[in-house]
Amino acid sequence: MSIKPTALQESRASLSVRHTLLASKMTHQYPSLTPDQKKELATIAQRIVAPGKGVLAADESVGTMGKRLQKINVENTEENRRCFRDILFSADPSIANSIGGVIFFHETLYQKSDNRILFPQVIKEKGIVVGIKVDKGTAGLNGTDGETTTQGLDGLSERCAQYKKDGCDFAKWRCVLKISDGCPSALAIAENANVLARYASICQQNGLVPIVEPEILPDGDHDLQRCQYVTEKVLAAVYKALSDHHVYLEGTLLKPNMVTAGHSCPKKYTPQEVGMATVSALRRTVPAAVPGICFLSGGQSEEEASLNLNAINQTPLHRPWKLTFSYGRALQASALAAWKGKTENKQAAQEAFCTRAKINGLASKGEYKPAGHADKSATESLYTASYVY
Amino acid sequence: PLATSNKMTHQYPALTPEQKKELQDIAQRIVTPGKGILAADESVGHMAKRLNQIGVENTEENRRRYRQLLFSADERIDSCIGGVIFFHETLYQQADDGTPFAKMIKDRGIVVGIKVDKGVVPLAGTDGETTTQGLDGLAERCAQYKKDGADFAKWRCVLKISEHTPSQLAIMENANVLARYASICQQNGIVPIVEPEILPDGDHDLKRCQYVTEKVLAAVYKALSDHHVYLEGTLLKPNMVTPGHACPTKCSSGEIAMATVTALRRTVPPAVPGVTFLSGGQSEEEASINLNAINTCPLAKPWALTFSYGRALQASALNAWRGQKENEKAATEEFVKRAEVNGQAAQGKYVSSSDGSGAAGQSLYVANHAY
User: Fold this and answer.
1) Residue B270 at interface with chain A, using a CB cutoff of 8 Å
2) Which of A70, A267, B312, B344 is a good FRET partner for B132, with 20 to 30 A between their CA atoms?
3) DSSP code, position A161
């Protein structure tokens, strides 16, 4: 480097001149991503949350699929799991108008459709982005009141690189917090925020957009305000950790809980109150650079999840990010109930799924107008105490 | 106790709904579209420097006369000045006709603000870094200022960019003291303007300034969250993101705008109603052009982006005045011109016709500036 030292630099006689020159000319220390990497991540994120679109969370683990299938008296075999995902993924291509991304479970990423096409390819051909759940479940935080962190960082970089080759462009990692007298503790908040930031950083290095999910469970009898307060504290910690870990926010998505009262709270709240509390909490914590927020449904019924999302998108506060869905049960409950494991029910199951997808697409624009009564499975609460995927 | 704590809303709410509403209304009034802030809070020592430059003696009377010519500007400034930051002395001074300055400003619908910090003090063990003092008795002082007509306050912290600064300690300590100040203000019905100024001294480039600004602002908003500060009832007064003054690479206003808005989008929650930039030694014209570029930057900006200018609103006025009574009208007119220009820049409507000459174009950079 042949640069003429300025007077300022010459005055630093005690430091080596070359070191000084390099340090002074340094942009931000050690950029973690190149401009091209950033562009790719931002583009992927924006495609997932394109207007009117949200995410199908089809990443239920083997154990969790077991619970789902048990409810409709279907055996939890690999084939049955493949069969049900096939119903969802082989839906009419117009599903891509409402679904921007699908989150896969590892097993499913390598399964094939009835037509012998790999599922990621089926999804990609519809113009939908393929995602992958990469965490390895929760682990106990010693010395706390049953709080957890989430594991899965070991070898994550290599796994992400492989998933990228195998067709994935985004990932998901779920952390769990709970509200009670002494929870969430400062440790739980700090530790989960940190592990989410590590995960996000590693994903981005490998061209995967990280969906950051700090779920605060709806278990408990706390009211709406308490949930809002806790959500604000948790999200503030998450975004500080993301900043500390040099995560590129424009290439991330957030998957939070909506702000709701606890399931045993005697007071009931309207979707408008849920909308107001949720949007207020997000406005106070989520930087505008984040392209989209995809809510988890957390045990809400299909209809509840749609009504709340709709109300969120009608809340009279300025919302600089997309506000959409990343629903599992709230997109699949009716489809599962219609299928009951029988081939002849496949079309009915697909229609049920497409219906919910369309409704949630509308809700993500605040345009959902519920007509009359929703059917039974849509309104049955999908709440299971202390839900674990 | 278990039963009641489970029923607890958020622990120990810091503000009632009425207090929140009042703070939010004040903040929004200050940053109404097209409006910004006149920072007229120069301390006695700083006024000395300003008056020195125009050969005027630094007496209380001269300071009074000078502020008077700003505050007596005609109704044209009512649509471009949302708030005025006072220095303590000035808050209790009067116009020639005996009208208290605070009343003059308030009566014309402009919000009265007050600088409440007590200057920087060194952080031992750092490379010349500082924190800011003024927390002692701040609650009582705020309560009194509120009675005396103030509805917002300002507190300036200072950070600098060099090889090893800002340090973690400087970032954390200044963020924390800003959050304590903000919390105390809100308890007393005063909207806190939070000012974490990163000095433009140095030869670092635009990217480094952006990087540091992002880290500093992330820490500030984490601290505000930790201290339970109600963001909708605050304003932010940051530096624009610019290269250091000794940086060989010059940047266009478009680049400055892009870097600035990007940094803010990554750190400032949308709940904050407005960002009122400091001018930090930019010339009057530079400060207006950059503010305009910021407002025409093609990124979504969920907060108002406006000015809180001291020197960049007053340089021409000072120059025109030179302490002479017969120059007062001309001086006031210079101030009105800059106020209108910046009001337009705050809406992205300013078309610069300046050739950069005169006081408007001269750089107002003073090395390692401290208020």
Assistant:
1) yes
2) B312
3) H
Instruction: Kindly report, residue by residue over B321-365, the tens digit of the pLDDT.
Output: 999 999 999 999 999 999 999 999 999 999 987 544 445 655 565
Chain A residues touching B202 at Cβ < 8 A: 8, 24
- Please work out, in degrees rounded to the nearest 5, the angle formed at the alpha carbon of residue A276 by the alpha carbons of A275 and A281: 100
Rounded to two decimals, the pTM is 0.88
Residue A105 has phi, psi (to 5 degrees) of -95, 150
Please give the Cα distance from A152 to B68 (Å, whole number). Answer: 66
Q: Rounded to a whole number, what is the distance in Å from the CA of B204 to chain A's nearest CA?
A: 6
Chain B: closest CA distance from residue A308 (Å): 21
Closest residue in chain A to residue B263, using alpha carbons only: A289
pLDDT per position as a tens digit, B78-120: 999 999 999 999 999 999 999 999 999 999 999 999 999 999 9
**C-alpha angle A148-A152-A158 in degrees, rounded to nearest 5:** 165
**B290-293: long-range pairs with CB below 8 Å, 24+:** B290/B240, B290/B242, B290/B253, B290/B256, B290/B257, B291/B342, B291/B345, B291/B346, B291/B350, B292/B253, B292/B344, B292/B345, B292/B348, B292/B349, B292/B350, B292/B352, B293/B253, B293/B254, B293/B256, B293/B257
Could you confirm whether A304 is annotated as catalytic?
no
ipTM higher than the 0.90 cut: no
**Percent of chain A, pLDDT > 70?**
88
Asked if residue B166 has a cis previous peptide bond (ω within 30° of 0), the answer is yes
Chain B residues touching residue A232 (CB < 8 angstroms): 225
